[in-house]
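Technical note accompanying the year-one report. For the benefit of new consortium partners, we illustrate the data format agreed upon in the data management plan: each record pairs a sequence with a structure-token string. No post-processing was applied to the example shown here.
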Amino acid sequence: MSEIEPDELISVFKALGHPTRLAILAWLKDPASFPPQDRPAEEVGVCLKHIQARANVSQSTASQFMATLHRAGLVHCTRIGQWSHYSRNEDAIARLGALIAAEL
């Protein structure tokens, strides 16, 4: 993100512009706050079904929220069987913070 194009930056800010997506990104900062999974969330990310439950939205809405965050580069997605697990992209978030501090 250090050499981020204006369109990419707009995508990031749009992704952060929805209160639920912003909340999800904050929740993912502490993956242990979600219910236990077969594999530790700290290793594979948080299963979409747990994000959906906490956000109190439908599965399709949760999927759309996570796809938006993923396209913006703010989260990583790991597929395990039929399940999608999400974790924060800490490097991208840190670069975004540095870019904002330096440029805006």
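Partners are asked to follow this layout when depositing records. The longest strand covers residues 75-80.
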